[in-house]
Design a protein that fits this description.
Largest sheet: 5 strands, mixed
Bound molecules: FE2/S2 (inorganic) cluster
Radius of gyration: 26 Å
CATH superfamily of the domain at 94-184: Glutaredoxin
Amino acid sequence: MSVRRLAEENVQPASFAFNEQNAIWAEATIRKYPEGRQQSAVIPLLMRAQEQDGWVTRACIESVARMLDMPYIRVLEVATFYTQFQLKPVGTRAHIQVCGTTPCMLRGSEELMDVCKRKIHKDPFHLNEGGTLSWEEVECQGACVNAPMVIIFKDAYEDLTPERLEQIIDEFEAGRGAEVKTGPQIDRWFSAPAGGPTTLLGDEASMGGTASGNAEGEGASVPPSNAARAKTAADETNPTLKTPATAPAAAEANAKAAAGTAEGEKPAPESGKS
Ligand code: FES
């Protein structure tokens, strides 16, 4: 794990400001939170600042702190904690974050880092000659089952070999990064076993297919579970009733049926009461 410090003063800009479009977005984002909870917008604001300028500067941290009425140190803590925030300039076409935690290490992350050292720079956080590429080692990115893997900006590239990582780096260097397939780089459906499911094979139709059969991400059709559901007959928890968002016609029919029931079930006035 690398030490996360702000960039040297000689690369820090004197000031930071959101551009007009991002400033409007930032104000709207802050308004989403209840009064007194505006500090919850710290992560989205820092991320938008990074998307605007490419990295999180000291001036940016101070500016976000002022916008959210937070002590500078609190925003600095957030920015230096998450490896998703870049604290110094990174490659303009790709910043490769190689997971080096145990599962990825056991599956070859050191060879992936050798590729980065050879193709980008011998040291992490250094730009290549053209300023287009950089790399670093990070801790677990939550895709251990598909180890080894790297993150490039917001996307994960998994089940990597050194050869495949070389190809991916070349694609990004050539400006074709958006065309590179994300996720598993082998015949695997998300995190299912390589080559297709090996368990629960009795009803393949409900499993949604295999790696090659459903690589576009069509979800499996699995009936909703009743586990931990409250035992109640309220309409809000009736799974057979469609919601207006998913089936407006069915929702209208439900509403009419409910109104009819309510009308028909009106209790008769009790005798002796006015
Ligand atoms: S150890 Fe690499 S993603 Fe978890």
